[in-house]
Amino acid sequence: MKRKLIGAGAGLLVLLGLSLFLLWGFRNPVINSMAERKILAMKERYGLDIHYDYLEFTKTGRILFGGLSVVPEQRDTLLTIHSAEITPGLWQLLRGNLEIRRISMEQPELRFVKKGTQANYDFMFLGDRTSRPETSRPDKSSAEYDRRAGLLLKTIFRLLPSEGKLTRLRISEKKDNNSVSLYIPEFRIKDRHFQSHIQFVEDGKEQHWQTSGEIDPSEHLLSLHIQAPDVAVPYLKRRLGAEIHFDELMLSFIQKDGSPMQLQGKAEVRGLSLFHHRLSPEVINLNHGEVDFHLNIGSQSIELDSCSTVRFNQLQLNPYLKLESPGHLTAKLHKSWFPASELFSSLPQGLFEHLEGIRVDGQLAYDFLLDADLALPDSLKFHSDLLARDFRIIQYGNTNLSKMSSEFEYTAYENGIPVRTFPVGPSWEHFLPLDSIPLVMQTAVLQSEDGGFFYHQGFLPDAIQEAMAYDLKKRRFARGGSTISMQLVKNVFLNRNKNIARKLEEALIVWLIETNRLTSKARMFEVYLNIAEWGPMVYGIREAADFYFSKRPSQLTLEECIYLASIIPKPKHFMTSFTNSGQLRESQENHFRIVAGRIAAKGVISEEAAKNVDISRVQLKGKAAGYFTDSLSVPRENPLTPQ
């Protein structure tokens, strides 16, 4: 039996040796046959016309080919290669797969062209056309993040060799009148380490990058280092209207086995600056930042694990992010007690203009949660809480944050243009101290705008959450859940541009003022009532009482107080509240009764007075009455409106 097994084994070895000998002897016909089968399959599946001038398998195990071109059906040429010499992995080649160990390539050129709605790279997204109906479209319900990422990495690790050289490599993209091109005179890779010089041109603007790195297919490891003065990230300005620049970028990661797919690595950037009008009207400078990341990529989700670490300047964070298809974002952050100076010395330049140079002492802690689903906006959850311990401001930055505590000059703007400047204090003839403003008027404003003003610390989390859900529905900044504190900071300290930078700086300044009691609540409310816009070039309660009713504030009736409070959000639209005859519309009655009830609940008026509120008692006089006979009004939203 043993002899028979030995004999059978020997026979198999002889047969295998003979097969390899015959295969080697006919290697060129075999490889050309394999190539033709692959070309035919690619043509049937993706509509690609692939041509080459010659293809040869040498005795030393190298594949030589030249004159290669890849042309998608009825499209511009996608790829051309003048000549190439490849040393493949033989066992992978016998199995029908190409794994490159060494490569030398001359004049490879990859061209992406899009004209109108047609592109020569459509097939990459449409997939195998032999397995889909002619009228089908890509399935957007299945994100397949893991499959796509795995395919990309597998292609990179298989086709990038441990040894090789690419000469005069060109990659270009053209879409209508826009173009981008990348030219590498020589790309060398030796012992898995590579380096090259890259010339990058986008719409006529030229850049030069120095790159180096390492690739190790056996360990699934890739690292990249890009260095150049003021590198501009391509495509962003054209596609998103954004600009990102940096001086140095380092990225390295390793792919771990398992499900979901895991990527662990580090990214570091120096000299980073970015600009987008929705972020800030100024360029934001982040200087130095780095991320140690742990990414989990599943079929329908991409997750940044909370063991990841983000550092920028002196601040270190451990965020958690998860994006689930088709549009569900979860973000969490917990930062236990840390020196407050780490936060304020790390604020990006250009993002917090008024706080630049501020010095603080004490400790902070922070908790954040955002859970938003595009399909279910009303389910949005939001929480943000910055806590302080022994916190104090040692030195203000560019702006004196306590300036509202005493008389200061206020400038009103219309469409970003200053239209009026006046002091908020006794030197202004129209200024009224808080104790000179009727309590009914004060309460009406509070109940209409911010009922908890004297009790909260500058923010109403529930109102902010509702506003974010509303904005998500509208896909724009439509509502902001602002408190009186936030409206004051926006108008007294900040510009009127609606962008993320303004909202972030607004929130931080409000927190500083409220937490440190830089201005008392009473003084803040006094300022609010004296600078609020109540009509065309009408500022403050004293001017408002005169403009609408030819009265002093102390002479206002309950109904007149409720009316003035009701138009603060849109004072120049006051005419829409009236009929052509100058009478308040009946639709206003319910609002008047609700606010009157709230004033009565505060003990400011009697229940009987609230029940007897009568909108017919609101009779416009003075200049406001004249707006029913002329067209002087140009409707505009109040800058003190919550946004």
Could you characterize the architecture of this molecule?
The protein is of the alpha+beta class. It is built from 17 helices and 25 strands. The chain has a 21-stranded mixed β-sheet that branches. Strands 22-23 form a two-stranded antiparallel ribbon. Helix 8 packs across helix 15 and helix 14 (558-566) crosses helix 15. The radius of gyration is 35 Å and the shape is elongated. The model is unreliable at 7-11, 13-26 and 630-643 (pLDDT under 50).
Short description:
The protein is α+β, with helices and mostly antiparallel strands and 643 residues long. Helix content is 28%, strand content 35%.
Distance between the terminal alpha carbons, to the nearest Å? 90 Å
Largest sheet: 21 strands, mixed
| Strands, count | 25
Q: What radius of gyration results from the CA coordinates? A: 35 Å
Structural class: alpha+beta
What key phrases describe this protein's structure?
single chain, 643 residues, alpha+beta, 21-stranded mixed beta sheet, 17 helices, elongated
Give the topology.
Elements (H helix, E strand, L loop, with lengths): L1 H24 L1 H20 L1 E4 L2 E4 L5 E10 L6 E10 L1 H5 L5 E16 L2 E2 L3 H4 L18 H15 L3 E13 L2 E13 L2 E10 L2 E12 L4 E12 L3 H5 L2 E14 L4 E15 L8 E14 L3 E4 L4 E4 L2 E3 L2 E5 L3 E12 H5 L14 E15 L7 E15 L12 E7 L2 E8 L14 H11 L11 H14 L9 H9 L7 H16 L5 H11 L1 E3 L2 E2 H10 L8 H9 L22 H13 L5 H5 L10 H4 L18
Parallel strand pairs: 5-7
Antiparallel strand pairs: 1-3, 2-3, 3-4, 4-5, 5-6, 7-8, 8-9, 9-10, 10-11, 11-12, 12-13, 13-14, 14-15, 14-16, 15-18, 16-17, 18-19, 19-20, 20-21, 22-23, 24-25
Helix pairs in contact: 8-14, 8-15, 10-11, 14-15
